[in-house]
Design a protein that fits this description.
By secondary structure, the chain is of the alpha/beta class. It is 45% helix and 16% strand. Helix 13 links the parallel strand 9 and strand 10.
Length: 274
């Protein structure tokens, strides 16, 4: 394994790009390597064993490529696979490497935004069934009530580039209605899936204007900034040449098309053959 390398950013597909975009704004000087497991997305409707196996394979690939630090820019992988990988696999792979999730920075700040103390979580079926958001938010903000809703159709809408089209309205409205049926006092929403920011404009159409929608990307970017300051033993191994590289487990042309639209710049991607 190489000694110095980029910071790895992993997601099941294109969703992690919403996190990467904010990380690039906050910490542009570092090198980044993005990996989307597009061939096996969505993860959110899969079993624990599958999510663990796929996430582990992708982390190992990023480690082989030289990453010392990986961000799981995926709530589903963070909720389901992160703890097992950190506790059971990472010590054997290399105890000097790190994998960070995105649940923790989100759950430790969400309570700062709500006035009504009623928080809504929108996520994949896997993230919602793990109850990770409820458990973690209750730990940091025991005075809040957390309501959650699984949105199984939202990731396919994004992966198929349908997020801005009229056909998306039905499913966006449907899941929001189901969430707000549980509590009409929710004043803060967490888009607990990195794909969902693509649906931001649609979501806004179906909720009252006073509701805060948290931007997980900026929260994760600022948490990463703090982490790198607090952990020079990791930071010193992260290259700072402003380089970005992109990998996908599926057809590179399809990924390049999506990523280029999103980044408003031509993106070249290589394939990690699984
Ligand atoms: N974008 C991911 C998340 O944050 C996973 C979506 C999926 O593959 O179902 O949960």
């Amino acid at each position: 394994m190489k000694k110095y390398g980029p910071i790895g950013i992993f997601d099941s597909g294109v969703g992690g790009l919403t996190i990467m975009k904010e990380v690039l704004k906050a910490l542009p000087e570092y090198d980044y390597m993005y990996l989307g497991d597009n061939a096996r997305a969505p993860y959110g409707t899969r079993s624990f064993d599958s999510i663990l196996k796929y996430t582990l394979e992708c982390c190992n690939y990023l480690f082989e490529k030289g990453c010392r630090l990986i961000i799981l820019a995926c709530n589903t992988a963070s909720a389901k696979a992160l703890r097992t990988i950190q506790q059971n696999h990472l010590p054997k792979i290399d105890p000097n490497r790190r994998i960070l999730g995105i649940l923790r920075p989100t759950t430790e700040t969400v309570g700062l935004y709500t006035q009504s103390r009623h928080i809504g979580i929108l996520g994949t079926p896997a993230t919602i069934s793990s109850d990770s958001y409820i458990i973690e938010i209750n730990r940091f903000f025991p005075d809040t009530e957390v309501f959650q809703q699984a949105c199984p159709m939202w990731v396919p809408l994004v992966e198929n580039m349908e997020y801005d089209n009229p056909g998306a309205d039905y499913f966006v409205e449907k899941y929001l209605a189901q969430l707000f049926l549980q509590s009409d006092q929710i004043d803060t929403l967490v888009l607990a899936c990195t794909h969902y920011p693509f649906l931001y404009n649609k979501i806004r159409q179906f909720i009252p204007s006073g509701i805060t929608i948290l931007n997980q990307g900026t929260i994760v970017a600022s948490a990463l900034k703090n982490y790198l300051i607090r952990h020079p033993e990791i930071e010193q191994y992260c290259n700072k040449n402003h380089q970005r590289s992109f990998y996908t487990t599926d057809a590179s042309l399809d990924f390049e098309r999506k990523a280029s639209i999103f980044f408003e710049a031509a993106i070249k991607a290589d394939v990690f053959k699984i």
